[in-house]
Design a protein that fits this description.
This protein is mainly α and 293 residues long. The chain has 15 helices and 2 strands. InterPro entries: Isoprenoid_synthase_dom_sf, Polyprenyl_synt, Polyprenyl_synt_CS, Prenyl_diphosphate_synthase.
Length: 293
């Protein structure tokens, strides 16, 4: 299967499942705000990772689709909150006004809050997962998005504005802010198979660490080399905020080399479990560093 076919199929399944998983909050404005961000398309990279890992482990469609939806809800909530004036203060997301620009700050905050809660409810109430699977997935997702994961990364990011980080500090920031959910995506997929092999999960975790960092380095590169129209958000926003990036610390050529090195680490992890260049995870690793948005 080609990566394009895989991603298109994943997006189609995910969009339908997301639309069915959250229909009405009982409040029109809140529901509109949730749908505005949740059903707005996007790359859906994290759900694709959930599916790819799930299929390798032997999970059936509902066993990977439920955690994929939960993870995407967490990701979308984080984007809504990251865009707020108190955080990154962005006006555009995926080429459209951000949630607080479309509605207002309070509505955006509440939409994000609701999505976070809905993600865990989706896992807890699933009929396609046994109790042990649901508990393990909830623990994994909570750890990845909470005070020792994504939220910690965002806190460090805010505290680092107008400061120059070294490479170790920058890698730690991004391993929390970006990498934690990417690693969680792979574990969630594997946990869709109740008896997933421990060696497989370890290899997927190493792969996730590498592509998580490669993803962020590529984001830093695109902030310099991309265009606002293609990126769907303002070009140069990191530079304008005086944030430390791999490009600002290393320069563009060295940052590009660093992304390729992380890509090779990801490939090495896949080779350890006998996956080759025809595998979706290999193709996804290529996509992470070759994308234009």
């Amino acid at each position: 299967m080609t990566l394009d076919t895989f991603l298109t199929g994943t997006r189609s399944q995910l969009e339908t499942a997301l639309a069915n998983s959250f229909t009405d909050s009982g409040n029109r404005q809140l529901t509109e705000a949730i749908h505005y961000s949740l059903l707005d398309g996007g790359k859906r990279l994290r759900p694709a990772l959930v599916r790819a890992a799930g299929e390798i482990a032997g999970a059936d469609v509902n066993q990977w689709l439920t955690p994929a939806c939960a993870l995407e809800m967490i990701h979308v909530y984080s984007l809504i909150h990251d865009d707020l004036p108190a955080m990154d203060n962005d006006d555009l997301r995926r080429g459209k006004p951000t949630s607080h620009k479309k509605f207002n700050e309070a509505t955006a905050i509440l939409a994000g809050d609701a999505l976070q809660a809905e993600a865990f409810a989706l896992l807890a109430n699933s009929q396609d997962l046994n109790d042990a699977q649901a508990r393990k997935m909830i623990q994994t997702l909570a750890s990845a998005c909470g005070a020792s994961g994504m939220v910690a990364g965002q806190m460090i990011d805010l505290q680092s504005e107008d400061k120059t980080l070294d490479l170790t500090q920058l890698a730690n920031l991004h391993s929390l802010k970006t990498g934690a959910l990417i690693q969680a995506a792979l574990k969630l997929g594997a946990y869709g198979q109740a008896n997933a092999d421990a060696a497989l999960i370890e290899a997927l975790d190493l792969y996730g660490q590498a592509i998580g960092l490669a993803f962020q380095i590529t984001d830093d590169i695109l902030d310099v080399t991309g265009s606002t129209d293609v990126l769907g958000k303002p070009k140069g926003s990191d530079q304008a905020a005086e944030k430390s990036t791999y490009v600002s610390l290393l320069g563009l050529p060295e940052a590009q080399l660093k992304a390729k090195q992380q890509h090779q680490l990801a490939i090495k992890a896949l080779q350890a479990i006998d996956l080759d260049e025809s595998s979706i995870l290999w193709q996804l690793a290529d996509y992470v560093i070759e994308r234009d948005h």
